[in-house]
Amino acid sequence: MTTSITKQLLVIGNGMVGQHFIEQFLNQTETAQWQLTVFAGEDRPAYDRVHLSDYFSDGNAAKLQLVADSFYAENKVTLKLDEPVLAIDRAAKTVTTAKARYCYDKLVLATGSYPFVPPIAGNDNQHCLVYRTIADLEAIRASSKGARTGVVIGGGLLGLEAANALKLQGLEAHVVEFAPQLMPVQLDKDGGELLRCKIAQLGVSVHTDKATSSISAGSEQRLQLNFSDGTVLQTDLIVFSAGIRPQDSLAKDAGLELGPRGGIVINNQCQSSDADIYAIGECALWQGQLFGLVAPGYQMARTAAAVLTGDNSQSFSGADMSTKLKLLGVDVGSIGDAHGRTPGAISLRYRNDLLGEYRKLVLSADGKQLLGAVLVGDNSYYDSLLQYALNGIALPADPHSLILPQSSGKPLLGPAALPATATLCSCHNVSKGAICAALDNGVQDLAGIKSCTKAATGCGGCAALLKSVVEHELTARGVAVSSDLCEHFSYSRQQLYHLVRVDGLKTFNELISRHGRGHGCEICKPAVASILASCWNEPVLAKPHVALQDTNDTFLANMQKNGTYSVVPRIPGGEITPAMLISIGQVAEQYQLYTKITGGQRIDLFGATLDQLPLIWQQLIDAGFETGHAYGKSLRTVKSCVGSTWCRYGVQDSVSMAILLENRYKGVRAPHKIKMAVSGCTRECAEAQSKDVGVIATENGWNLYVCGNGGMKPRHADLFATDLNDQQLLSYIDRLLMFYIKTADRLQRTATWMNNLEGGLDYLREVIINDSLGLCAELEAQMQLLIANYQCEWQTVLNDPVQRARFNSYVNAAAPARSDFGFVPERGQLIPSRQLNINVSIESKETSL
Amino acid sequence: MSQLAHALESQPSLQQQAVILCRQQDLVPFSGVAARFAEYAIALFYLPGETVELYGLSHIDPVTKAPVMAHGLLGETKGEFYVAAPLHKQQYRLSDGQCLSDSALTLQVFKVQLLDGQVYLLPPTEY
Ligand code: SRM
Ligand SMILES: Cc1cc2nc3c(=O)[nH]c(=O)nc-3n(C[C@H](O)[C@H](O)[C@H](O)COP(=O)(O)OP(=O)(O)OC[C@H]3O[C@@H](n4cnc5c(N)ncnc54)[C@H](O)[C@@H]3O)c2cc1C
Ligand code: SF4
Ligand code: FES
Predict the structure, then answer these.
(1) DSSP state of A400
(2) What's this model's pTM, rounded to 2 decimal places?
(3) Which of A 526-565 lie inside 8 A of B, CB atoms?
(4) Is A777 exposed, middle or buried (CB count within 10 Å of its CB: 0-12, 13-18, 19+)?
(5) ipTM for the complex?
(6) At A729, which helix (H) or strand (E)?
(7) Residue A295: which residues within 8 A CB-CB, separation 6 or more?
(8) Cα A199 to the center of its chain, rounded Å
């Protein structure tokens, strides 16, 4: 027998753990002889189940997918979608699907779990659903149509997440829990009680101590729940979330050893009772324990991949089941032995009914080790506590200080205090030592650390801790983690913005003499110019500002590679009359400008010389156009679809709204450019979800999406608020833009701003919708000032002979001919010649005059 | 008065060979304008109040060959002034045209001088 014979490795299940196994396996060195085939029970490749609920906020299943479709082919992995394995024949070493029979040398079971549906009469109604797969969510969405209320049966972690999803669908949500408290697995009685109050305040009705005995048809609504205590509750749909059960039926039929309550028994190498069959993830039972989280599943996947390729150094030795969650906006954390079951354990509690916070520490009998903890209301204590518990770090003499409110000087377990062995990211098993090693090997920043160690790319729970460790270690290595704008200002853009406002500064010189040093540079000058414009909206070419502007702003046009400029008139919402089109055509023809429809629904005219710009703009303005700010860090375009005016599906007039928005925000200077779009219905022809501000019409008004981005790293916009009327829409956008202008970094698009915003979308909603900072009135007033001070910059230039004189190519010579710039014809228009041959000398230094 | 200006005033022959490029008022403070002399395109950078108030450098971007350098932003680092090329942002020191990020790139330097409200271009060999 030669080693060149390929061996068959089959993986059953392409869920999160099955997928992680494939990746880990491919990372091993000894894989050449293996042919890898994966059977997926679902009709799509592996997706991020942890963030499943995001599907309800953005309806985007593709975003959840874990790897690109091309991943499998590129790595020579055969993926059989929608082809569940029906049976395993261990004697023949084959598996059977509805399509064929396949041989295996080794088999990996990664079949996960299925939701447990209690045997209640009536549970087979079409509006009784579960919450596990994308298909389940699609079913819930369909069932929500025309529904008013939804009930979740089960008040555990997933049940509460499901209740939130129902709320997002616009339903009145109820949670029915059999136990006397919510989240009985993770929380103690007090914690559960507080959570219940908080959730009830958020409008979700919680019914604890309720056993459902049957489900019958409802009189007012589709269904009626009949409880054992004789009470009833009517609802339109039911989601069962009463726990999960390991998907072990294949293993059972094949005669593998199972636990008394299910689960495929595995050893430390993740092998089942048949050494050729491995089991990993939620279907596996290790030392009588099931693991319903990704991190332990990933550890099993790593172990199995190593063992399969002959590396026996790895083994699975159990995993931490601590969790940190935000459920319906409420922080909940549970660490280790939350219930204090360890013999002799003692507990310390902090309970504040006023603030709605509860924290409990479970300590070893000697009070020196942290065994567990419960947090409700504020998870900022979680990272430190977890590190104490996981790494056995000795507690301070007064452990209660760890859970008292932060103002009392809580000794935070800073990144410096963590040992190198401390696991920062349990999903990807990354220790502090590994982070330090990566930094020593030349990785320079957080983004680099994430891509090379994969830390914080699993459940994301470790992101904040990772950031603080990386920043701490960078500082320790002498790398300045500085937010200084440049060598002239020791302030961030946000701080400079604040100084300009508070001191009422109107010019760069005032600012640099008071708060900076030196003469400025190409970084701080445009940044300050933008801040000044965002605060006071004086014309950017007014004398004190002109030397600050980036080249494009200086000439209100975009410089092209051959030194000529482009001209982009504003075409609000993409709507244009034939007469206006003709006048653009006439100008383009007269000046022989290359004409192109842009990606932003307007028309760009290329190849104008500096001297021609005022002439061209005079004609365009006479024809009724104004500047399109294609050069500015400001509003570009508001794309629109044709909307209800013409389209048979349109539910609102998207064109009018786009024009309204474009005219409202045109000329507003921001940290970076801003793009918007308005779609007339959910078909989304205007691609609003790729914009900084996206608006999509609904039957009842407008849905607002924020912080989307195209460009090098596209980001889908987040759904921010639904069914807004026109006025709400405008005031939310006013506030949002102004808050962005106030707080973003230099050249930071809204997408990156959002990605870096502490607290993310929820925080932004708090600020913009609930006015948590008390800023909204001020933000709106500031936006009003900017809107009121709008002027077409080109009109201003044309009215001022001094500004206009700036547009002479040479101060002492006639305007250069266009031919000096080297143009050649192509497809009926003039484009820059590839070989620039400009008609002025470019000879070397030695030339004498 | 700088030595150079003194030389200009006192030596009529020099003055004859120097040419007036433009008026001081054509300059834009803390920014650049372009001027032509014969086949040359010269970027004039004006820093009123600084030790050296006027610099002349080639207007042609050495990388793209486009006549754009006068339209670059002026910057200062550790007391030295430079212009950032408008297209790809390379920095060129105003005093000698040396590119700060790529030693192979330079901008040709032209000798220029302000006198009596005029901008003079001086012949290269005379001082
Ligand atoms: C003209 C146009 C291409 C076209 O022929 O269609 C264009 C041209 C330029 N884009 Fe763009 N972009 C154009 C639409 C887009 C779009 C599509 C859209 O707006 O729907 C995108 C992706 C959407 C987005 O921005 O999220 C786009 C993403 C970019 C980016 C990446 C931004 C990012 O956040 O990563 C840059 C680079 C930058 O701004 O730093 C860029 C930069 C540029 C610059 C300014 C590059 C430069 O510095 O020379 C180009 C100058 C335009 C000029 O001279 O007039 N352009 N650019 C489009 C003008 C639209 C308009 O009417 O204003
Ligand atoms: C809403 C929700 C939120 C969650 N939040 C968190 C969280 O915050 N943190 C956390 O750690 N965990 C969370 N989890 C749990 C986490 O998603 C699971 O632990 C993880 O997905 C388990 O991975 P797995 O591969 O074992 O199982 P799964 O991801 O369930 O994958 C199993 C796959 O196997 C397929 N399969 C089953 N039988 C067969 C067959 N016979 N043939 C072919 N294919 C088959 C199934 O169709 C499925 O696609 C959450 C789960 C849900 C549902
Ligand atoms: S994609 Fe690149 S080349 Fe094309 S217009 Fe945008 S910036 Fe220019
Ligand atoms: S712990 Fe899950 S991503 Fe790091």
Answers:
(1) G
(2) 0.54
(3) 526, 546-551, 554-555, 559, 561-563
(4) exposed
(5) 0.69
(6) helix A726-743
(7) A319, A320, A426, A427, A458, A459
(8) 25
